[in-house]
Specification:
two-stranded antiparallel sheet; Recoverin, domain 1; two-stranded antiparallel ribbon; mainly alpha; 61% helix
Amino acid sequence: MRIFATAAGVIFAAAIAAQSGHAAALDRFTDNLERADANGDGVISRDEFLTQRAGNFQRFDRNRDGSISKSDFGRLARFRPEAAERLNQLIARADTNGDGRVTTQEHAAASARMFDRVDSQGDGVIDSGEVEALKAAIAARQ
């Protein structure tokens, strides 16, 4: 069975949610997870997840300075300050050295921690049950 959920699209899935509303964000999140299943076996391995997340980094580094920071979301900050504040919180969590930016290394480490949280069975893959549990947890936060 194919997995229909999203890569917690992740530390920065909230950016998508902030920009497009919860329902659309959850759909995009689901699409990200489905795409992460590169070999189509119905589960997402750690390597598949980390590869997908690395691609997300490039998308969120809008100003192409090699890091993700609030400067990548200036328009969002102007029009949706509450969403921008949520992004700032996410950036702060991933920013291990406290410089206000998330580097590729910090993003990779945060992605690995995220995978470990979603892989509740600890078997090295994210299956459809774990995805459904993630979706329920996200819905409960809204």
